[in-house]
Design brief:
The complex is a heterodimer of chains A (360) and B (375).
Chain A lengths: L6 H13 L18 H15 L2 H4 L5 E5 L2 E10 L5 E2 L2 E2 H15 L2 E13 L4 H17 L3 E10 L7 E11 L15 E4 L5 H9 L17 H11 L3 E6 L4 H13 L2 E5 L7 H10 L12 E5 L4 H9 L8 E7 L6 E4 L5 E3 L13
Parallel strand pairs in A: 5-6, 10-13
Antiparallel strand pairs in A: 1-2, 2-7, 3-4, 5-7, 8-11, 8-12, 9-11, 10-12, 13-14
Helix pairs in contact in A: 4-5, 7-10
Chain B lengths: L9 H14 L6 E7 H10 L9 E8 L7 H11 L4 E5 L13 H6 L4 E3 L3 H10 L4 E8 L4 H14 L4 E7 L2 H10 L7 E4 L1 H7 L6 H6 L3 E3 L4 H17 L4 E3 L11 H10 E3 L2 E4 L3 E4 L3 E3 L8 H4 L15 H5 L31 H9 L4 H8 L1
Parallel strand pairs in B: 1-2, 1-7, 3-4, 3-5, 5-6, 7-8, 8-9
Antiparallel strand pairs in B: 10-13, 11-12
Helix pairs in contact in B: 1-10, 2-14, 6-11
Classes of the chains: A alpha+beta (360), B alpha/beta (375).
Amino acid sequence: MTKQFTEDEVGERIEAMRRRPQRFRDERVTMAHGAGGKASRALVEGLVVPLLANPALEQLSDAGLLTVGTARLAMSTDAFVVRPIRFPGGSIGELAVNGTVNDLAVSGARPLALSAALVLEEGLAAEVLEAEIAAMAAAARLANISVITGDTKVVERGKCDSMYIVTTGLGIIDEGVALSPQLVRPGDKVLVSGTVGDHGVAIMLARGDLDIEADVSSDTQPLWSLVSALLGTCGAGIRCMRDATRGGVATVLNEIALSAEVGIVLEENRVPVRPEVVGAGEILGIDPLYVANEGKLVAFVAPELADAALAAMRAEPAGREAAIVGEVREEPPGRVLGRTSFGGHRLIDMLVGDPLPRIC
Amino acid sequence: MRFVDEFRDPELAEVLGREITALCEPGRHYKIMEVCGGHTHTIYRYGVQDHLPEDIELVHGPGCPVCVIPMGRVDDGIAIAERDGVILTCFGDMMRVPGGRGSFLEANARGADIRMVYSPLDALRIARQNPDRQVVFYAIGFETTAPSTALTVLRAAQEGIENFSVFCNHVTIIPAIKAILDSPDLRLDAFIGPGHVSTVIGCRPYEWIPRDFAMPLVCAGFEPLDLLQSVYMIMKQFADGRAEVENQYSRVVHYDGNPVALKVLADVFALRPFFEWRGLGSIAHSALKLSPKYAHYDAELRYDLPGVRVADPKACQCGEVLKGVLKPWECKVFGTACTPETPIGTCMVSSEGACAAYYNYGQYAKQRLTLEVLK
């Protein structure tokens, strides 16, 4: 008879497992490795980072930081492979600009310039391509940034799905700005800049596999103006920010809880979610907290400045529906707890694989 | 949101919680099994247990469709999918279920074409769109999902779609409950009955449970207040000295079930003499296959399959978890070797599986500490 462990001992054993260095042990890449959850983490931290090892990369933040003379620069890159390429509220071109701009923004970097590489499928209609380049141009204008270099490649029909875009952005971090998970302290407030889950649900519905009709649009939008306002209002009171893309708000909270060694308590009923997104999530068995956003950030703010930060966010078009949704605690380190709308509590863990719908 | 928020009202929950506590006999411990995985999910997702006194223990039952699929049946699915020209379709939860030769997700990485669908009708649509391919629907689930598979087979027959077939793993709930009641390791006091299964079969098929075992059974809905109310109804039966089948989910469940669905099931399916359940072993008359009339659509007849019984990994204690004998965290490999990203057992795969629900939502409940933290 093996020893019977207590629930607490099992909890501690799991906690230790969770903090072990990631290893990539799969024989092949599966779709789960691209979903932004635990499998993605194993791929990045267990395979890519160890091989490319360097201090900037090992920070695993949205952008890599480098210092040139006295200038602190941030560089970020992102590949866009969304299907379908056009969806309510946006398209791949717009996404490719905003996604990289936002990775720079949440790192505290003023976006300076972008590069864009296009991978095009043989047979792609010229008007589709033109529309996407125009969408990139419009998004760049709105974000006040230029695409200053690029590349195009064409692959045989069937070797890519219409078009993929890779953008890289360069930004500069103003003096005095310091953002890092290590600065997050117990007592800090957690803010989200608006409704969660819009982008992921819009894409799911746009695929048309579901026969569900709902008026949900992607939230793709640039966040630098919002970030700039936040930094201007609260300065060092802003501890850390993250762009809640793949894996959603839940994944971001887990990443910060783990790297800052703090607990986070989320008040679920304070998280802004559109009723249409709640409804689609109910039908599909998907929790909006895990659904991707493309224009929402999560900010950790010193408690005394939380209200000012909220006001600053709400004064910006990208932050009108911002809310204070939770608080940082000492316990339990590395974990995110949710107080449910039902008055109970639950653990909010990292996403596992794709958010698969429940079947009954 | 209307029709949702009403069933998640924290104030009502508190009131119900107090009334349930008042019905507890001092010193008595109550073990109530929720049969259905959907209930397990709700319990953890909303923290239903937080509104219940410690003397009421909710035990998780076998009603998770994915959890009861034995490894050999996963391998059969992969064997079908690896044939030239076949598209295998299944519900999303099946994609990560481990078989002896890996999961469907891994089979896809090796070159198979296994697609997730939300309804068997989507599988039929794929068949219509790909007349040069064979499209197989990997059917799973209890009486809840079986009617939709049956209707899809009828539709295929009506439309004369020949490149479509069904690999049938539908199971029935009553034999599983019997197996649990026959298990010597477990003492239960009452059941929360499976709401969605009951929409189809009604409440009569459970009447033997109070009659032969003197245990209350309340068919329950899937919102957190539904579950609390069901626990209240069970506790009220204890207090009144009754043991009956009651229907809490009356807004959806008719006591006599859904006669149209039952008729379709009887037409399209036939009972298998026995079927292997993961962790529970072979159970007589516990699963469905296509009836002779529709055997033409039976993938098991259309394809030559390995049909090999693959023993569960030694370390896996899914059977004990499915029967409610072990709590998820009492399993030797829980949370270490077996996690949602690398599941050994099926209970760790679907969000309705007791282990996955506990791991994702409840694990680390460390109840008291957590409640202190949340104050």
